[in-house]
Amino acid sequence: MSKIISTLSLLIASAVMASPLLAATQAQIIAEISGISDDPQILPIRDPNAAAAARGALGTTGVLLIPESTNDRVMAFDPVTGNLIDADFIPADPDNLSTPIQAILSSDGNSILVSDQSDDVVQQYDLDGLYLGIFAPAGGVDVAILDNVRGISLDPTGNLLVSVGDGANADAIAEFNTSGNFLGNRVANGAGGLDSPFDVLVNGSELLIPGVDSDALHRFDLSGTFIADLAVIDNFPEQVHVQTDGNILVANFVGAQEGVIELTSAGAVVGVYNPVSLGGYRGAYALPNGNILTTNGDGVHEIDRAGFLVETKIGGVSARFIEFVQPGPPPVPQVIPSLGVIGLLIMISLLLIVGLWMQRKGSHSH
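-> structure tokens emitted (366 positions)
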């Protein structure tokens, strides 16, 4: 909340000084913290061919899911190229989504969970994009538990972790079981100096949590105990992503380190990637070709580590966090073990009878 208050003060001061650029910047920061987003007048029409392609990719290569709050939907991208597959993986749903931030796979792999910053809940959709209802809190909206939520993640047991930025439970990581019931806070309010968390990521035996007002990437163990700050971030860290080599990407919305920051696992800065045509970074994901897929208020973009824009994958949408999703294959039915001893004896007897009948039929044919 301190950043909101200071930002409002700066906004007023900038208006008095008649500085439109400063006023616009501070207004954007306020909108980002609170989840304000503009909605379109005409909702997009779903492309059935794109939907079929995305469903096919979901079970094979997997997809990258990216919510966007212009149309209140979730888009699907190719995890190898970063190219758009389906802009309406979860079609525009302004009745149930206001500022969707992150879309992840549920613990059973049968649905998609979407955090919503403005609606203060985690929504649930099936794999065809149909709305199922509020997942967490299980009883419906409860701002004493969730208020101004951002990034979400599953812990190794399948429980849901949700970053909380405001209200009575501000500056905490709330925990829910696989049915969406509130279990308490995994990370206590303000633990380790955490102030306005914008994401929560499970990284091995630790949690990585960026704090917007604490201006740091914090480390906690899986039980929620503070370990240390991995790095100081100037000054609006949003999504955190761990590469296969162990290095960490942090999408930094604004500040002296505006851009996608790359850190070693020990917290040393490798680079800050900030193409001049972009800004206001929210999501980050390392592509196999060595480039980075990132998001901002104007779309989804591929950038390189020299700090250049390679390609805009989709523009004109307010894109959010990036999540790789790939449901596991369906379980193979285990028929024989379920028959039991009697069932096996019956099956063997039937096979013997069929064998004798075929043998007898063969002897009569001669």
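The first strand starts at residue 63 and ends at 68.
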